[in-house]
Amino acid sequence: MRIAEVETRPFRDQKPGTAGLRKKVRVFQQPHYLENFAQAIFECLDDVTGRTLIVGGDGRYHNDVAIQTLIRMAAAHGIGRIVVGQGGLLSTPAASHLIRLRGAIGGFVLTASHNPAGPGGDFGVKFNVASGGQASEQLTNAIFERTTRLSRYRIARLPPLDLSRRREVDLGGCILEVIDPIADYAALMQSLFDFEAIRALLRSPFHMRFDAMHGVTGPYARRILVDMLDAPPQALLRSEPLADFGGGHPDPNLRYADDLVRSCFAPQAPDFAAASDGDGDRNMILGRGLFVSPGDSLAALARLADCTPGYRRGLAGVARSMPTSRAVDLVAQRLGIPRFETPTGWRFFCNLLEAGRITLCGEESFGTSSDHTREKDGLWAVLFWLNVLAVRGIGVAELMREHWRTMGRHYYRRHDYEDLDEDLARELLEALRARLPRLRGERFGALQVTAAEDFEYHDPVDGSTSAHQGLRIVFGDEARIVVRLSGTGTGAATLRLYLERYEGDSAELEGDVDAKLAGLSRVAERITGVRRRTGRDQPSLVT
Ligand code: VG1
Ligand code: CO
Asked: To test ligand 1's pocket by mutation, which of 488, 496, 540 has the most ligand atoms within 8 angstroms of CB?
């Protein structure tokens, strides 16, 4: 193998503390750009010689080009075996699983998640470590540090490699293994869920739809839902992975999966509908005439986990991100298991998962998962739901009504204000932060502020502290308002306002969500002034 040392210059593009790079495609197309990032990563890892590395992505534009570069660099750094999904594909949860299964040193996951793709869209690379989870803050900081001091990178001189068929080739001391990206993941799902029961359900007059939004989960859904579980092929929508996701925004929510959502409120509504995002780690669940809010989904799955073989033995604990609705807290209380509240972002869950402190976790942003992998997992959530429905023999809406009758209901919405001027957004948050101490005890109609704080997390596993993780104004168990800025965008700022209101009265469980939250929304405006300060009369996205 011929190895070249290429001269380069440092760059400062990675945000310190983030697990990867997410940028416009044209940024990644700059000469040496990806190479620099990869070089910094290889330099920060312990001895990689002879180790296994996993590489794959969501199939978006530039996936193929980037994979070739990463393979050549991995080979040049002495990696012994590079495992790549056929066609360069691996869903994020499947990649995380493979890293663990193969005892790999880590893996490159190529995706910008739910962000649009194509020549004008976004691309991303993140490095997951040997546990299958995202790199620690220490490691990402070290990588950032290294990117600012680079002078050269190592790359193997190799012809373009054919990743379209499964095979093993020796690149000269380094084996390239092109694998079926689905098989191991499908086997994992089979070990967790009752496939017999789900198959019986899907063979019965049970009408389901799964929208892959032209992301990576299409082939996974075809193999698992159609081939293994006998769902009719027409149950799958947009199941062909496309480099530009068909021009869409592969984010499973009320705006971007609106055809699916509308179909659930139409006369021929399916019994069960779900969607996943570009890289397969998010999920949206719907029933006939009902959208299951992600916080509710987490709570319901936690409560009914004993319907599934994989979780029948009970849950060690559960975790949710701070802005996620407190519905799961009540379930944890009832089950008598610990409940953790973490900052937004999956890596906080990973510590708890690694330590065996939790079994299930989830975020309001359509992310749910368990200790079976170290990423959130879209199809896993779909199979979990199907398993529960098969065992309980009732529909999604019935099941949620039963849940609310037992636990009460957390009405919940997230309001996003996108494309804001960064300074304006930051000032707004600062002004609110400054006001927090004076809010405590203040009354807004029937609601009284019991706590107002800038959320700070103390990781019970590694003892680290993460400050400034979102502002929250709490009105006892009744209601909550949370405000934070998005950390995942590639352009202007996005402000997220989260509204949550608890209703324990059985006469109040069937209300319209927005109507139920209208009062709290007005209180939020009085406190935060988001609309006034941004000059917007409404959020740009409600989920
Ligand atoms: C968003 C979500 C957060 C999620 C993150 C990554 O972050 O709110 O819950 O963990 O995306 O998801 P932010 O900072 O924009 O609110 V994904 O599907 O890109 O791995
Ligand atoms: Co994603």
From this structure: 488
Domain boundary among 181, 202, 229: 181
Distance of CA 73 to the CA centre of its chain: 28
Residue 117's CATH number: 3.40.120.10
Closest-lying ligand 1 atom to the alpha carbon of residue 113: 19
In this structure, the answer to whether residues 207 and 342 fall within a common structural domain is yes
What separation in Å is there between the alpha carbon of 365 and the centre of ligand 2?
10
52 exposed, middle or buried (CB, 10 Å; 0-12, 13-18, 19+)? buried
Cα gap 119→241, rounded to integer Å: 16
Task: Verify whether ligand 1 is closer than 6 Å to residue 345 (CB atom).
Answer: yes
**Six token digits for residue 143:** 């990588």
Query: How long is the chain?
Result: 543
Other beta carbons within 10 angstroms of residue 55's beta carbon come to: 26
Which residue, judged by its Cα, is nearest atom 9 of ligand 1? Answer: 365
Q: Are residues 260 and 133 part of one domain? A: no
Per-residue pLDDT tens over the stretch 97-155: 999 999 999 999 999 988 899 999 999 999 999 999 998 888 989 999 998 899 999 99
Give how many domains the chain has, as a whole number. Answer: 3
Residue 16: pLDDT band (50, 70, 90) is low
| Ligand 1 proximity of 487 Cβ (cutoff 6 Å) | yes
Q: What whole-number distance in Å separates Cα of residue 442 and Cα of residue 448?
A: 6
**Structural domain of residue 68, as residue ranges?**
2-181
Domain co-membership, 376 together with 310? yes
Instruction: Give the CATH number, domain containing residue 494.
Output: 3.30.310.50
Q: Is the same domain home to 386 and 477?
A: no
Give the H/E segment covering residue 479. strand 479-485
Query: How do residues 201-253 score in pLDDT, each as one tens digit?
Result: 999 999 999 999 999 999 999 999 999 999 999 999 999 999 999 999 999 99
How high is the mean pLDDT of the chain? 95
Q: What is the pTM of this model?
A: 0.96
- Determine the distance separating the centroid of ligand 1 and the alpha carbon of 365, expressed in angstroms: 7
Q: Which of 242, 203, 211, 536 is nearest to 390 (CA)?
A: 203
Radius of gyration, CA atoms only, the chain: 23
Q: 3-class DSSP state for residue 247?
A: helix
Q: For residue 10, name the pLDDT band (cuts at 50, 70, 90).
A: confident
- For residue 474, give the amino acid letter: V
Q: How many CA atoms lie within 13 A of 118 on its CB side?
A: 11
pLDDT of residue 76: 98
How far apart, in Å, are the Cα atoms of 112 and each of 64, 280, 306? 14, 11, 34
Ligand 2 is an ion; residues with CB less than 5 A from it: 113, 277, 279, 281
Active site residues: 113
* Substitution candidate for ligand 1 out of 217, 365, 417, 497 with most atoms within 8 A of CB: 365
CB of 113 closer than 6 angstroms to any ligand 1 atom: yes
